[in-house]
Each structure stands twice: as structure tokens, then as C-alpha cells.
Amino acid sequence: MAGRVDPYRQMRFMLEIDGIVKAGFSHCRVPTASSGVITYREGNEPPTPRKLPGLNEYGPLILETGITDSSIELFEWRTLVEQGKMDEARRLAAVVLLDATGYPAARWTFREAWPSQYEGPRLSAVADEVAIERLVIVNEGFGRIAFAQSDEESEADSERTDEVEEVPTGTLPRGVGVPQGIDSLVGKSHQEKKVRNKEKEET
User: Fold this and answer.
1) What would be the CATH architecture of the domain defined by 13-33+51-202?
2) What are the pLDDT digits (tens) for 41-94?
3) Which of the two ends of the chain, N or C, has the fewest CB atoms closer than 10 A to its terminal CB?
4) What DSSP element (H or E) covers 148?
5) Neighbours of 52 (CB within 10 A)
6) How does pLDDT run across 149-174, given as a tens digit for each residue?
């Protein structure tokens, strides 16, 4: 059907956390972003209060993963918070949603992220399950970035082989899904795409 656009599946995603190698998680809950509502009314106005935006609130990023040797990094990250080493604990984190072919489709980048809670697995001698640990990561703002493609890139995608492309890293591009307070960050992947498009126009 011409013009059909299918939504992305939720089953393929990766995590990027500064200083942590582990990228695979079994569950990931992308947080909510909301603004408080302040009501105000003056006596000479109609009997309906105004609705003014209050503080912006960003929920936690919740991750679950099976325990492996490499997952110790998550617990060590949490330990930095317990030791009061917040300069080391605060990091840039990103959730990357992949399309059906394994290429980046959408990206959420989190500012000043740090683990506020660690939950170990529930162990049972009679259970036939994977041991899961849970990490709650708070942040001070996040934004979503779309991996926009030009017509030429889209056509090239249809001719791709099984080559694996590295998931792009970097911070939020200015003015693209950027909440207040992080519009000064510049995204590496966004800048590289602009350079590629400019080179195509010149050739």
C-alpha cells in the first residue's frame, strides 16, 4: 500500500551510558515528561482560572537486565552515589530504538543521569528463570531525536546487506526535541548527517 508507514517495534533497543560498556537490557521504561499546572485568577476576570505552566518534571528511566559478569558495572555506578561521588555518578545516557533491520530509528538522550535505586534479583531454588536486576535512573531532562533520512539514504537502505553499523553516539542536537536547559548541547550524529548531505549537494 502506497504511503504506508508502520510503527517501530519495541523489542530492539540499546542503551548508551558514559563509562559503561553494557548495552543490552531485557526491559526499558522510557520516562514521562510533564509540566506542573498553576491556576491563577483575578477578581475582575471570568469565573474560570488561568492555567499556567509550572516546573518541568522528568520521570525516572527504569532498566532491567539479566545478571552477567559485565552487569557489575551497573552496581558500581550506583556505589558512586552511595559514596557521595556525584561528579562521577552524573552521566549522559541514551536509549536507542532500532528498526527491523537493526539500524537506529529513534533516540532519547538524558542529561545528568544517575542511579537512585538498585534492586537485586529474587532468587529461588525451584524457579526456572533468569536472575534479573533492576536499576532506576533519575535525570534532569531528556529529549527525543529522530534519525531523519533523505530520499537518497532511504533508497540506499533498501539495498543494504547484513553489514552492522555502529549506533551513533553524542548529545542532543540543538533545537531538535531539546527541553529547557540542554539546548546548548550539540549532537555528533546530527552534525555528521548535515556534513554528508552538504557533500552530496556539492558533488
Assistant:
1) Roll (2.30)
2) 999 999 999 999 999 999 999 999 999 888 888 899 999 999 999 999 999 999
3) N
4) none
5) 11
6) 544 444 554 554 444 444 344 443 33
Q: Which three cell numbers stand for residue 187?
A: 549532537
- Could you tell me the pTM of the whole model? 0.69
User: What does residue 51 show for φ and ψ, rounded to 5 degrees?
Assistant: -115, 115
Lowest mean pLDDT among 5-14, 37-46, 90-99: 5-14
Could you tell me the three cell numbers for 198? Answer: 552538504
Contacts of range 50-59, beta carbons closer than 8 Å, 24 or more positions apart: 56/141, 56/179, 56/180, 57/33, 58/31, 58/32, 58/33, 58/138, 58/139, 58/140, 58/141, 58/142, 58/179, 59/31, 59/32, 59/33, 59/34
Look at residue 200 and give its three-state secondary structure. helix
Domain boundaries, the chain: 13-33+51-202
- Is residue 82 classed as helix, strand or coil in its secondary structure? helix
